[in-house]
C-alpha cells in the first residue's frame, strides 16, 4: 500500500464535506433562511390567488354503428356493378375516427365552431364572476361596452384575432380522445366560465353530427341520382338487378340520415356546468414555491460561506 504525503492527505480532508459543518452554517443563518423562504412562500401565495379558476366540462360519447346492409350488398354486387363503371366502397361500421379527426381540424373550427362562439370569450377573458355570471375582459385587449378590439398586435397578427390564432388558442383548451378498451369518446373543454365550457362542448357535438350528416346526405343523394341516370343505359339483367338493389340501399341510407337524432355519436354523459374548478391547484403552487425558496436560500448560504472561506485562504 502506497503512503500518501501529508500534504495530499491534508488536501483530501479539507475537500471532504462535513455534514455537521453544513448544519452549523445553515443554523447560523436560520433567520436569513426563514426570511427568504417566507418571501418565496408569500410570492407563491399571491401568484396562486391571482390565477383565475378554470372549469372543465366534458361529454362521454359512443359511436353510432352504421348499417352493415350496405357492406353485404357490396359483397354480392360489386363485381357486376364494376362492369357498369361503378366503384363501390366495401368499408362499413362507425364513423367515429373520421369525426374525431374533423373535430381536431382547423377547417371544422373555422367553419363550424368559430361562427357559433364569441371570439372575445376565447381570446380576451380575464375572469368569470360567479355571483353575476358575467365575464371580465382584459382592458387592453377588448372593450366590452363598445364591442371593439383594442389590442396592439405585431404582424403577421392583427388587432382582431384571426381564425388561425383563435384555433391555436382553442386546441390548448380542447381535447377529444377515444378509449382503446371501451371505444368511448371523451370530448372536453376548459374555460374560465363553466357555462361557456358546457356550451362549447354542446356546440361541438351538434356541429360534428350536422357536418357528417350533411356529407352523407349529399353522397347518398348523388349516388341515387347517378344510379337513376345509369339505369336506362344498362341492358344486362343481372346488372339491372344490382343497380336496383343499390338504389334501394342508398334510399335506406338517406332515410337513416334524415331519421336518426344521433347520427355519429350517442351522448352517454352530457356536458355540465361544473360547480368546482379543475385547476389551478393553489395549495401545490404554494408548497412548491415554499420548497423552492428553502432550497435556493440554503444553496445561497452555502455558496456564500464557502466562497468566503476560499477567499480567506
Our estimate of the beta-strand percent is 5-15%
Secondary structure: number of strands: 8
Shape: elongated
Mean pLDDT: 82
Structural class of the secondary structure composition? alpha+beta
Major beta sheet, strand line-up: 6-7-1-8
Features:
about 60% helix, two-stranded antiparallel sheet, about 325 residues, elongated, alpha+beta, four-stranded antiparallel β-sheet, 11 helices
What this model shows, in words?
By secondary structure, this protein is α+β, with helices and mostly antiparallel strands. It has a domain at 55-123 and 171-269. 58% of the residues lie in helices and 13% in strands. It is built from 11 helices and 8 strands. The protein has helices at 6-15, 19-28, 30-50, 69-83, 96-104, 106-113, 119-123, 163-173, 194-230, 237-259, 282-312; strands spanning 55-63, 125-129, 134-137, 142-143, 148-149, 174-178, 184-191, 265-269. Strands 6-7-1-8 form a 4-stranded antiparallel sheet. A two-stranded antiparallel ribbon has the order 2-3. Strands 4-5 form a two-stranded antiparallel ribbon. The radius of gyration is 33 Å and the shape is elongated.
